[in-house]
Amino acid sequence: MNKILVVDDERHIRELIKIFLEPEGFRFIEAADGVEALSVLDTEKIDLAIIDILMPKMDGYSLCKEIREYYDLPVLMVTAKSETRDKVAGFDLGADDYLTKPFDPQELVARVKALMRRYEINYSGHIEIGSVRMDRKAYTVTVAGNEPATWPMKEFELLFTLAGSPGRTFSREALIESIWGFDFEGNERTLDVHIGRLRDKLPEGKSGIRIRTIRGVGYRLETAS
Amino acid sequence: MNKILVVDDERHIRELIKIFLEPEGFRFIEAADGVEALSVLDTEKIDLAIIDILMPKMDGYSLCKEIREYYDLPVLMVTAKSETRDKVAGFDLGADDYLTKPFDPQELVARVKALMRRYEINYSGHIEIGSVRMDRKAYTVTVAGNEPATWPMKEFELLFTLAGSPGRTFSREALIESIWGFDFEGNERTLDVHIGRLRDKLPEGKSGIRIRTIRGVGYRLETAS
DNA sequence: TAGCTTGTTCACATTGAGTTTACAATTGTG
DNA sequence: CACAATTGTAAACTCAATGTGAACAAGCTA
Based on the domain organization, do B39 and B102 belong to the same domain? Predict the structure, then answer.
């Protein structure tokens, strides 16, 4: 699914943005300032950034400039007042769109989706692969025309991650971090167990997909040949 | 992209390192001594550090120790002479690899890449040579239009290393270090066996490449004439 | 409370990648 | 050529990585 980076020094604003966009099926990474944001961009694949202009350490303008230079993703700028001067500066630095606080939730959602579309990012509240359809909003999985079923969270997230980049090999660490977070301290076997359950629920013949073990590396989802 | 911290009091050495590594697509942050380096590490997300041992204010040893304690990134130590004592001290303090001035540019590049790979830093990912295509993300190898195949890790890494610098002769030690790490304690023959398996999988006519033995030195991958 | 569902852990089975072995083949050198 | 060093390779072996059934724990619901 799509990951959005929210950069704002006020935690409460970040929360607000998340609350509005979460129901649309986005995932979030937060950063409190530009420096933090850049370090996130270096490690995570981000699809879109929502950036406040006024921040400590590195302001939104500089951040935007950096992003333009080294990355390729749409930037939505947010600021407290709709000062024309700021607007111009924002666009000059390559922000793709602009929004002023306080913003209308629906407008935020609309603009984000529009940007995603414009950048041709497969906006994915849902994924289709093989004969499997996943709907992140409803948390349901449909296999080969069966009734949509609500799956356990971990299983859903795991499949969603794998199915989000079919053909790509995910290291065990990457998967664990993606599903459980970087500070997972549990048992190694847990991942295998969930993979096993996914395999049970997705017989190759029915689902048209297969989860392949890459020994010593991790797992990969591929379409059944 | 990946950021490398270069710590050396001689500006000209820093420049040199940059010149060699820049074409590989890395970004750089420089520091003239250990203290400066630490302050950089505090603000920037660094993927790898190249550190000279002899420096004012805080020498490479102390810096390395600090890094080990508070950060998690591979360290490549550089020094003027290959004194055995220094080498030991370097490894003792947790340097991941070691290089002596004057160094061979290609060796520098190879070691940096190897470290990145070993640390699972996502270093750019696909290689095409002859009719062979390697995709590091998917962990697959495609030979002459066949289906992409999943190869065992060691074979993949070995070929990836060789194919990453076609025409360059890798010493056996360099290859072993690159694939198994500098502390490999196994049998000499292991490398040959894997080379043999690669050759089986890459018939010269089909693949358009050949792995040549350089007796007394190591191996080299070249495009079939 | 009992009875589900979900997530995790454990113990044990299984497998195959990676390594070693043992010997053959090749190359370089005096 | 003789012979020593180096490399190639088939086959056996080994063990860590993975698969799996079952049990357990926690939370929710009826």
Answer: yes
